[in-house]
Amino acid sequence: MPKDEFPDYVPDDGIAAAELFSGKEGLTYNDFLILPGYIDFASKEVSLCSPITKNLNLNTPLVSSPMDTVTESRMAIAMALMGGIGIVHHNCTPEFQADEVRKVKKFEQGFILDPIVLSSDASINDVKRVKDTYGFSGVAVTDTGNLGGKLVGMVTARDIDFIDDFGQSISEVMTPRDKLITANHGVSLREANQILQASKKGKLPIVNENDELVGLISRTDLKKNREYPYASKDSNKQLLVGAAISTHEKDKKRLELLVQAGVDVVVLDSSQGNSIYQINMLKWIKKNYPDLQIIGGNVVTAAQAKSLIDAGVDGLRVGMGSGSICITQEVMAVGRPQGTAVYRVAEYARRFKVPVIADGGITCVGHITKALALGASTVMMGSLLAATSESPGEYFYQDGVRLKKYRGMGCLQAMKDKQGSSERYFSENDTIKVAQGVSGAVVDKGSIYTYIPYLVAGIQHGCQDMGARSLLTLRSMMYEGKLKFEKRTLAAMKEGGVHSLHSYEMKLY
User: Fold this and answer.
1) Could you tell me which of 438, 426, 384, 475 has the C-alpha nearest to residue 298?
2) Beta bridge partners of 139
3) Closest Cα to residue 19, out of 27, 11, 9?
4) Do residues 260 and 247 make contact, with C-beta atoms less than 8 angstroms apart?
5) Residue 270: helix, strand or coil by DSSP?
6) How far apart are CA 137 and CA 155, in angstroms?
7) What is the rounded distance in angstroms from the CA atom of residue 424 to the CA atom of residue 323?
8) Structure pTM?
9) Do the beta carbons of residue 258 and residue 89 sit within 8 Å?
């Protein structure tokens, strides 16, 4: 047949997502591939901005899981600087969790509206305590020791570096008020930055007409703004941070402390989110904290999602038994393959403009891209971020390999150590604990600051190959049937991985 008789003819190839998931079987990420599209843009042009809740957007669709071996303040700070967000775990006291949230909110700001302040009677020991707790040692000194008191000086690491007497008063070593460069209340951020750059000082105190301290601006913040232009920040230029709570009555007090610490979003942490306990807690939070964004879950069906959407949830966490350390599907016989779960819930929730977080089953950057292509707005990661420098815990060596501990919140050890894990799995009052997770170890991955850029670049290249300039475009292509999928056999999976080599080294970044 002469080809010029059909100049525009292209045979139909691949299937739409709706057809892929129309069968009776459940699919996970390895069960399918996405067919390539047309490229007319560079990978760096791909926008990864995406919502995590109805009113909260991230520049990078990456979320760290609320697990006690994954997310505390160091991880949350790193995730926010890289454009994502960290969810601080609740397998701890309410006070500890609130302090971790507070560390994130104080880490980087434009104007620091609630800086740490000391009085002139404080000792060098107090300055060192501030550094150990918050990671910085440049502290304003007022006559009252509080914000709003008259500024009397500043003390920095430079002032105390070579002093052996830690009991010495900071009034003897601080830079006094008459030698400080300050800015007046009402100064713009741009003007304050210019003053700070010209002064070559580390901190710029902001004072009112009575010379009372009302805020600070930090030189290190200016540097971080240059290094992390896509950092996730609130309207006050503070880093975004989330925290998890249980659905139990006593966690209402925990929530109060988290709100006081400045938390931006709360995750109702439960292995099975379709419960009267979560619905009641969700309604109570919406009544008492109407502006607070709430993520509900976990869910894997549209019916589960409907219960939480009807109760007013702002985002949904999808996944049940698909995590690398989770054995819920084996022990409880309940769950769903993650690919099907993400597609089904996202397809339903989008009608109510409720974003979906794909939580679990992520073992490589390709899985992240697949989850986003199935309708997820963001992806939550546990094992993928475990054993990074910023995750909690200490490194240890086993057979010459550098490792870090990683455990599921449903493992017996986690449930016995702290109450939060038991509450997540509705087993806090059980005489016999039934494990829904395991404890293990993960190989050192290095720092989040080098690992996340690799993940981001991988997602951008994946979107480029599919012909999507943004995640919004990617989701639209999928729902319109323009993004084509194809199931693959076990032999195809083998072909798609490394094979037919005597030996090889896999270095991803």
Assistant:
1) 426
2) 155
3) 27
4) no
5) coil
6) 8
7) 15
8) 0.76
9) no
> Which residues have a Cβ under 8 Å from the Cβ of 108 and sit 6 or more positions away?
77, 81, 221, 224, 225, 231, 233, 237, 238, 239
**DSSP H or E run through 413:** helix 412-417
Task: Tell me the pLDDT of the chain (509 aa) as tens digits.
Answer: 555 666 778 888 999 999 999 988 999 999 999 999 999 999 999 999 999 999 999 999 999 999 988 999 999 999 999 999 999 999 999 999 999 999 899 875 567 777 888 888 888 888 888 777 666 667 889 989 888 899 988 888 777 777 777 788 888 888 888 888 888 888 877 787 788 888 878 788 889 999 999 888 877 766 666 678 899 999 888 999 999 999 999 999 999 999 999 999 999 999 889 999 999 999 999 999 999 999 998 999 999 999 999 999 999 999 987 766 677 767 777 889 999 999 999 999 999 999 999 998 899 999 999 999 999 999 999 888 988 888 888 778 888 888 877 766 554 555 556 555 455 545 455 554 445 555 677 777 888 899 999 999 999 999 999 999 999 999 999 999 999 999 999 988 888 887 767 666 666 66
Query: In degrees, to the nearest 5, what angle opens at C-alpha 271 toward C-alphas 242 and 76?
Result: 20
Task: Kindly name the residue from 102, 254, 317, 326 that is annotated as catalytic.
Answer: 326
Q: Is 65 exposed, middle or buried (0-12, 13-18, 19+ CB in 10 A)?
A: buried
Dihedrals phi, psi of 314, to nearest 5 degrees: -100, -15
* Residue 139: both structure tokens together: 């502290």
The token duo for 264 is: 């931006």
Question: Does residue 326 carry a catalytic annotation?
Answer: yes
- 190 as an active site residue: the answer is no
User: How many helices (H) does the chain have, and how many strands (E)?
Assistant: 18, 22
**How many angstroms separate the first and last alpha carbons of the chain?**
49
Listed in order, strand segments (DSSP E) in 332-453 are 356-359, 378-381, 395-398, 401-407, 439-443
Element (H, E) at 423: helix 419-424
- Phi, psi of 251, rounded to the nearest 5 degrees: -80, 0
75 residue type, one letter = M
